[in-house]
Amino acid sequence: MTIIIKTKQQNKILFALSAIVFCSLMSGCQKESQEATEETVLINSPDTLEKIIPVTLIQPIQKNIDITLHAVGRIESLSSPTISGETSGKVISIHVDEGDEVKQGELLATLDDQLLEILKSQEQSELKRIQILIANKKRTLKRRTKLAQSKSISQDSVDETQTELSSFLAQETLLYNKLAAIQYKLDKTKIKSPINGTVFKRYISKGDYIEEDEHLFKLVSLSRLRIRLPVPENKVPGISPGQDVFLSTPASNQKAQAKISRLLPLINQNNKALEIIIDIDNPGDWRPGATVLANIILERFNSALLLPQQSIVKRPSGNVVYVYDDLTKTVKQHVIKTGNSITLKNVTPNSSSQTQSLIQILSGLRKNEQVVVNGASYLTDNARVSLVVETMVKKTMVKKTMVKKTMATEQGR
Fold first, then answer.
1. Domain CATH number, residue 106
2. Residue 242 parent element (H or E)
3. Nearest to 380 by CA among 335, 334, 337, 333
4. Is the pLDDT of residue 28 over 60?
5. Domain containing 97: what range?
6. pLDDT higher than threshold 70 for residue 408
7. Cβ–Cβ < 8 Å for 189, 87
8. Do the domain assignments include residue 13?
9. Would you state the pLDDT for residue 393?
10. How far apart are CA 192 and CA 154, in angstroms?
11. 193 and 108 in one domain?
12. Does 48 fall in a domain?
């Protein structure tokens, strides 16, 4: 009898526990059903069961863009002569040193000219002697010509005097040429700068004896510079003289804008590159030998239309974008033609990266049309969509209403 009573009590306990579990499960199902209903209301239109895809929109970005080719080259001086000796002699004085700035015609060094001065004096004395003989022969020729006219002397005597005079005149010309050559060498004992520039290298010292064609100084002009830029051969068709180039160098804070001056005729066989020449005025403190960074403007677009990469979808018909229609809440498929890929600093608010890859749209889209960005790959032509921005606003409004109701209930209690 006791055993039966215990069994009935156990059955009652099990029945009570089962009822509690069933109620808990029913309560959870009702809550999930209510949440699902709320989500459906927020995402789906109440008058249709058609699938609606949440999307975000963007309007094409308009921007002036330059299509550039980056190149790294070197800076050279447009004028960097090596001064060599044009006469032999001993260096008796040096007036400049490496790093000194010099003007055109400024004295750099002086050679011993004593021997040349002696030779000059000798030739000048000989010239005076010949000139005296010439004067005498001219007087003799004049007198003999008169005598020959009166038949006092023969014509042969006149001709002989004329020949002697011609010989003296030839010697005079020779002496003039010798004196000019000596004076030329005397002038070359004064080593002068042919340009405005800076002394880059000094090869001689005081007391050196130099020969003709021996290197004395290396000068560099900093006022005019030459930029040499190698361009890969596959980029050559887009390069031509007159194109704009933006230049900078790690050796200076100064920047420059110039134009391509000329292209060399041959492609370098070692690196398969064509060399571009750009001649510019020194923008400030640029120095020959430094590296130069260049952006060559290949093409310019004013008010180009740009879209993020994720808004462009590949379809059998080609590259397409989906344009949002606010009246029908649907999207229309537009086949587009794309251009260049541009990397810009963050220009759209929904991007978390510092830079964005944007694609140029050449045709198929107008500047005032709104294009789907997120969710574009799930769309087809005439698909119904809902804007994620609107959904977020509705959810926020529902949450705020629920909070207000809860506060009012607690205050009533």
1. 2.40.50.100
2. none
3. 333
4. no
5. 89-112+189-219
6. no
7. yes
8. no
9. 39
10. 60
11. yes
12. no
pLDDT per residue as tens digits for the range 157-193 = 889 999 999 999 999 999 999 999 999 999 999 999 9
Q: Does 31 have pLDDT greater than 50?
A: no
CATH number at residue 347: 2.40.420.20
pTM score of the predicted model: 0.60
Phi-psi region for residue 240, left (φ > 0), alpha (ψ -120 to 50) or beta? beta
> What type of residue is 344?
L
Say if residue 314 is in the same domain as residue 386.
yes
Instruction: Extract the tokens encoding 101.
Output: 């700035």
pLDDT at 350: 55
Residues 204 and 277 both lie in one domain = no
Q: What span, in angstroms and rounded, lies between the C-alpha atoms of 98 and 219?
A: 9
Residue 357 in any domain: the answer is yes
Q: Crossing angle, helix 388-412 and helix 2-43, to 10 degrees?
A: 130
- For residues 315 and 386, state if they share a domain: yes
Q: What is the pLDDT of residues 295-312, one digit of tens each?
A: 999 988 888 999 999 999
CA distances from 17 to 3, 10, 22, 23, 250 (A): 22, 11, 9, 10, 81
Does 214 lie in the same domain as 253?
A: no
Q: What is the mean pLDDT of the chain?
A: 84
What strand order describes the sheet that includes 89-94? 190-192, 107-111, 89-94, 209-210
User: What are the residues whose beta carbons fall under 8 Å from the beta carbon of 322, sequence distance 6 or more?
Assistant: 55, 313, 331, 332, 333, 334, 371, 372, 376, 379, 383
Coil, strand or helix at 105: coil
> pLDDT of 63-118, one tens digit each?
888 888 999 999 999 999 999 999 999 999 999 999 999 999 999 999 999 999 99
CA-based nearest residue to 372, from 70, 8, 44, 58: 58
Quote the pLDDT of residue 400.
Answer: 45
- At 254 the pLDDT is 94
Question: Which of 208, 35, 38 has its CA nearest to residue 110?
Answer: 208
> Do 108 and 154 belong together in one domain?
no
Q: How far apart are the first and last CA of the chain?
A: 52
Is 143 inside a domain boundary?
yes
